[in-house]
Amino acid sequence: MELWQQMVRDSIHTVDQLVDKFSIDRSVAEKLIEFFQVRINPYYLSLIKYPGDPIWMQCVPDIKELQDLDADEDPLYEDAMSPVPNITHRYPDRALFLVTSQCGLYCRFCTRKRKVGNSEKISMRGLESAFKYLEAHTEIRDVILSGGDPLMLTDVMLEKILKRLRSIPHIEIIRLGTKMPCVLPQRITPKLCDMLKKYHPVYVNTHFNHPWEITPESTKACEMLANNGVPVGNQMVLMKNINDDPAVVKELMQKLLKIRVRPYYIYMADETKGANHFRTSIQKGIEVIEHLRGWTSGLAVPHFVIDAPGGGGKIPILPNYVMEFDEEKIVLRNYKKNVYLYKNVEEEKELSTEIMKFDSAKRKHLSKSTKGNGKAATRRVSTPLRISVPDLEEIGI
Ligand code: SF4
User: Fold this and answer.
1) Which residue among 36, 252, 302, 360 is the one 20 to 30 A from 236 at the CA level?
2) Which of 360, 344, 347, 358 has its CA nearest to residue 386?
3) Number of domains forming the structure of the chain
4) Does any domain span residue 327?
5) Does residue 149 have its Cβ closer than 6 Å to ligand 1?
6) Collapsing DSSP states into helix, strand and coil, what is residue 95?
7) Cα distance between residue 147 and residue 111, in whole Å
8) Nearest ligand 1 atom to alpha carbon 117
9) Domain span at 370
10) Is 193 one of the catalytic residues?
């Protein structure tokens, strides 16, 4: 058994442990575990500094999880957009492939509590229909392995999946959505990296939410992935009393770049059953992103998005930098709230597009009355169109 597997085995997961370790009332602990499984591995547990701190809140169950049970289990309509078991196909050219229900830690804010936590929730028997779907849908060029956490699979099982995906010619890139570099970095081993690099291009999207999660262990894991040609991006969820502070987020983004992880998304927390107590206001999210843009490297500024309820997908949210915009100009304010004017130009179109709009009579007339000069093939839409015969010949008309 590898070290990471032993650490999963040694995780806190029982009612007795919740009562002893975190002083949770027994009857509450029973209900919490029944609602959503607990798994706190020894590594992540060691990051807790005091009760109720940002690490504690992400992994120790709270009675608040039981207080919004009327909320939606699947606000993103992942199941409604699932044509076959284990696949969610929401966007035109990419698909989510759920390959396990297991995780190295069960995050209390998880948006997939309905699917994650025990082996019956995602059946491995369904993988064949998922592969067949991916094979048949030639428009899918990007597959994101998720779950659960795909790095809970053994290297052997994961390699079988990667090998099969690589046998599908239209799949260009494979992404792993995994929290392991953050919550159980011991999972990133030289053996795993040697295997992954046989199936490039492979990308990793990971999930750090707080600067305390950047440790010597997680640094080593992320650097090992980068050294083996796996670009790593980070998806942070904005959460009340965890990271809803612009200074905390800026520190996290800058530290991620230092360990060669590119900040990719900041999400507003989803409206998920059992996780609504983590939600913050949208204004707080805008404040957070406004304190990044301009104030630190552009590389440290991720997209700020709301994953739209009802399956609308990720929609970007920006602070309002546009004060006025018309045909003549745009008036903008910068990150320091200084105001600038940028003059507009008229739209230009390719000559070939203009010619397509010409009727044949006009074209005939032009060929008789114009003389060639062979000049460049773009001009303003609104200026009178003068086209030389050599121009027309050059583009085969
Ligand atoms: S690792 Fe991902 S899928 Fe697993 S509990 Fe955490 S958020 Fe949910």
Assistant:
1) 36
2) 358
3) 2
4) no
5) yes
6) strand
7) 11
8) 5
9) 348-394
10) no
Give the H/E segment covering residue 88. strand 87-91
Annotated catalytic residue, options 43, 44, 74, 103: 103
pLDDT in tens, 7-65: 999 999 999 999 999 999 999 999 999 999 999 999 999 999 999 999 999 999 999 99
- The active-site residue out of 39, 44, 74, 112 is 112
Q: Cα separations (Å) of 218 from 58, 151, 177, 191? A: 17, 15, 16, 17
Q: Is 103 in the pocket of ligand 1 (CB under 6 A)?
A: yes
Q: Is residue 35 part of a domain?
A: yes
For residue 326, being part of any structural domain is answered with no
Number of other residues whose CB lies within 10 A of the CB of residue 114:
17
C-alpha dihedral (128, 131, 133, 134), degrees to nearest 10: 170
Residues 221 and 369 both lie in one domain:
no
Sorted by sequence, the CB contacts under 8 Å of residue 54 that are 6+ apart come out as: 209, 210, 212, 241, 242, 243
Domain-embedded: residue 194: yes
Rounded-to-integer distance, Cα 105 and Cα 355, Å: 61
- For residue 106, report the distance from its CA to the centre of ligand 1, in Å: 6
Closest among 342, 347, 305 to 325, alpha carbons compared? 342
Looking at the structure, tell me whether residues 113 and 261 fall in a common domain: yes
Query: What is the model's pLDDT at position 385?
Result: 36
121-130: pLDDT as tens digits: 666 667 999 9
- Is the CB of residue 110 below 6 angstroms from any atom belonging to ligand 1? yes
Is residue 107 within 6 Å of ligand 1 at its C-beta?
yes
- Report pTM: 0.85
